[in-house]
């Protein structure tokens, strides 16, 4: 019953993964020199890949309990990777975890986990959690890609502009 939805979401996530690589390549000068942007890009790709992988699992004909186990493994692997990448993005800075990001990533992994728990028990009643997580992963991933496209490097440009606006500074060419 969920295979059409999963195929649609999985195809969308796979396409958006490719778009993210293009955006990162377009902004490579900034992303390559920023530990934060490299790790945030990896988080975005991880969201899309988790969505693609879980969609593939849902479309494979198999017993419901097996799907549940696979979703639990995928959720655990994704949550671990997303947490490591968030920590790596903030390493060497005084930044704290952004609450909205933490909530989005926890809800993403929790929805897949909930669907996995239901499926492990032999029920497909939890697939709504999978659907919500998939849509959240797509939405948050698109937002992350948009940030790379529109904001990557602007903090450095703004900092340089602020220094030049200070009295007694000489504008650089």
How many individual β-strands?
A: 0
Cα-atom radius of gyration: 19 Å
Report low-confidence residues grouped into runs of 5 or more: none
Q: Calculate the mean pLDDT score and round it.
A: 85
Roughly how many Å apart are the termini? Answer: 62 Å
Helix-strand makeup class: mainly alpha
Count of separate DSSP helical elements: 7
List keywords for this structure.
single chain, 173 residues, mainly alpha, 7 helices, 80% helix
Report on this model:
This protein is mostly helical. 80% of the residues lie in helices and 0% in strands. It contains 7 helices and no strands. It has helices spanning 3-26, 28-31, 35-59, 64-90, 99-120, 127-151, 154-164. The N and C termini lie far apart (62 Å). 33% of the residues are buried. The model has no long low-confidence stretch (mean pLDDT 85).
Q: How would you summarize what this structure contains?
A:
The protein has helices at residues 3-26, 28-31, 35-59, 64-90, 99-120, 127-151, 154-164. By secondary structure, the chain is an all-alpha fold. The radius of gyration is 19 Å and the shape is elongated.
Write the layout of secondary structure elements.
Elements (H helix, E strand, L loop, with lengths): L2 H24 L1 H4 L3 H25 L4 H27 L8 H22 L6 H25 L2 H11 L9
Helix pairs in contact: 1-3, 1-6, 3-4, 3-6, 4-5, 5-6
